[in-house]
Recover the amino acids of this structure.
């Protein structure tokens, strides 16, 4: 991690362009500089400790206190030498997410958290329970620039990218909830439930914030910390072609989900405006490159909108488009949003769509709907701009 990329003004962390001059007391900035602990990979934290003149083992122990034992209480970190603890406490803070509200779905399977960032912007994070697993749906941006017409986040527009630390802080919040702990201090371990599955499908386009998102993925995967395996992390993109190619070239060990929604350029562009920038043929070429290079299956997301993209003809078009590729199609009946009038396809229509895909040798699922009554489903996350 490039330490010079982090700047702090007062007590609120800012990720500044790395070529921006460092604020100094002469510029009128407060000289106390603190970094968001969650912005650091373990290697970055060891590097920081070395700059302070401390051995790496202290930084490594600090890492396990936070990510393995779940404590943010400096006084509880009794195995750290006092000098190191004092230095770390003065230089690091544990993010700035504040829980503004928490809503629970009627069926008890979903919780949605409205979280305030240090600059007052707000994001949403969702915890979903399925049979045998719990998944956190994390946001990568406040708002989104992609403008998918049926998506509440797209309808609100782009506000800003999240830092890696702000993405990790969402995961840590969910992990704390699962462990049965409060929002601060040492967590209670009564239930011993840990966060094990992550989908980057909340607010924002992850590949539009590539560096911060992949830094967060590295932190999530760290075997001495949260240790969430790459197979349990899914990154969803609406089709940012350069990002898909970069993921392939860097061989990032995460699942990739690509939102398709239309099997021809003309149909897709009516739902996904960014298809003008990266047309369907370019997107599919990038997907083939990714699958071939990494020998990995891609999940294709298809929001089923009644009378729009749920016909047998469109199912056949999807079949022809993906036939022979390592692919799985996830069918998601449209979730309602205020800014789009479409309706979800019915269960029978979804089954018919699935059957046609099966005829092309394509496995598919119909996504279990979760948290619709609290607007926590796919495409429903939204906050005001400020
Ligand atoms: S579906 Fe995803 S990429 Fe599209 S506008 Fe919504 S958050 Fe952005």
């Amino acid at each position: 991690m490039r330490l010079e990329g982090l700047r702090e003004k007062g007590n609120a962390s800012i990720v500044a362009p790395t070529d921006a001059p460092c604020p100094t007391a002469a510029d009128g900035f407060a000289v106390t500089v603190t970094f968001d602990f969650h912005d650091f990979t373990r290697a970055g934290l060891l590097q920081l400790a070395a700059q302070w003149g401390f051995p790496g083992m202290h930084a490594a122990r600090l890492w396990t206190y936070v990510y393995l034992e779940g404590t943010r209480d400096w006084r509880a970190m009794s195995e750290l030498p006092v000098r190191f603890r004092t230095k770390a406490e003065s230089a690091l803070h544990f993010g700035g997410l504040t829980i503004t509200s928490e809503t629970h779905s009627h069926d008890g399977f979903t919780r949605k958290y409205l979280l305030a960032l240090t600059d007052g912007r707000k994001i949403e994070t969702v915890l979903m329970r399925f049979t045998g697993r719990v998944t956190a749906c994390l946001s990568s941006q406040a708002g989104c620039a992609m403008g998918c017409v049926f998506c509440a986040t797209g309808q609100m527009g782009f506000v800003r990218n999240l830092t890696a630390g702000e993405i990790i802080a969402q995961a840590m919040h969910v992990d704390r909830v699962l462990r049965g702990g409060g929002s601060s201090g040492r967590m209670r371990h009564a239930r011993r439930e840990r966060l094990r599955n992550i989908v980057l499908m909340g607010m924002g386009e992850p590949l539009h914030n590539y560096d911060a998102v992949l830094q967060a993925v590295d932190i999530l995967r760290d075997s001495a910390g949260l240790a969430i395996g790459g197979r349990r992390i899914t990154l969803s993109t609406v089709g940012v072609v350069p990002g898909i190619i970069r993921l392939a070239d860097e061989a990032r060990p995460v699942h990739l989900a690509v939102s398709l929604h239309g099997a021809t350029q003309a149909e897709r562009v009516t739902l996904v405006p960014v298809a003008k920038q990266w047309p369907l043929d370019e997107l599919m070429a990038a997907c083939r490159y990714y699958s071939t290079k990494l020998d990995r299956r891609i999940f294709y997301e298809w929001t089923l909108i009644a009378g729009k993209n749920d016909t047998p003809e469109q199912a056949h078009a999807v079949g022809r488009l993906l036939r022979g590729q390592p692919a799985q199609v996830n069918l998601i009946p449209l979730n309602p949003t205020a800014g789009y009038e479409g309706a979800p396809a019915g269960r029978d229509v979804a089954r018919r769509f699935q059957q046609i895909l099966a005829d092309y040798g394509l496995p598919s699922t119909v996504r279990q709907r979760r948290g619709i009554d609290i607007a926590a489903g796919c495409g429903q996350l939204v906050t005001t701009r400020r």
Summary: The pocket of iron/sulfur cluster is lined by residues 144, 146-148, 151, 153-154, 203-205, 238, 379 (CB under 6 Å). The longest helix spans residues 164-179. The domain at 3-93 is CATH 1.10.150.530 (DNA polymerase; domain 1).
